[in-house]
Each structure stands twice: as C-alpha cells, then as structure tokens.
Design a protein that fits this description.
The protein has 83 residues and is mostly beta strands. It is built from one helix and six strands, in the order ββββββα.
Length: 83
C-alpha cells in the first residue's frame, strides 16, 4: 500500500526508519475514486480488484478490474456489477 512516512523524532536516527517508533504511516487515498480509506489491489478468482481497507475491504465502485495474469482490463465486469 502506498504510504507517506513522517519522521517523528529528530535526526540523526538511532535506528532504521522502518521501526514503528520512528515513523507514522498515513494511508493514501483510493487510486481510482479518491476515498480516504486506503486501498489495495487484491486477486479474487484470478481477477484483480481494488478494495477500500477502512470499509472492510469493500470493492471500489469505479476501479476497472483486470485479469491478474495478463493485466488486461475487464471493463465488462464493471458494467455487470453496476447493472
């Protein structure tokens, strides 16, 4: 998940920035609709879908799913879900 890291203590750092006490992870907005919930691409039955994390992995209503193996967009699935 893309994230912005904010350093919470002054330099020089005594440990790698990956330590939790040295940084704060701020979830990025959804890549497709901008909802401030954080998002992840996940594989469901061979299809890549975008889900919102803070809403219990709810499917993003505007993201175009894709074939996980080829990366080919599957816009007909968006039409089927919207109907």
């Amino acid at each position: 998940m893309p994230a912005t890291l904010y350093v919470s203590h002054p330099a020089p750092l005594s440990a790698p920035l990956s330590r939790i006490e040295d940084a704060q992870v701020v979830p990025s907005p959804c890549q497709a609709c901008g909802t401030a919930a954080g998002s992840d691409w996940i594989k469901v039955d061979g299809i890549g879908v975008l889900v919102h994390n803070e809403r219990g992995r709810e499917l993003c209503p505007v993201a175009v799913p894709f074939d996980w193996e080829t990366g080919k967009p599957l816009p007909t699935l968006v039409e089927a879900v919207a109907a």
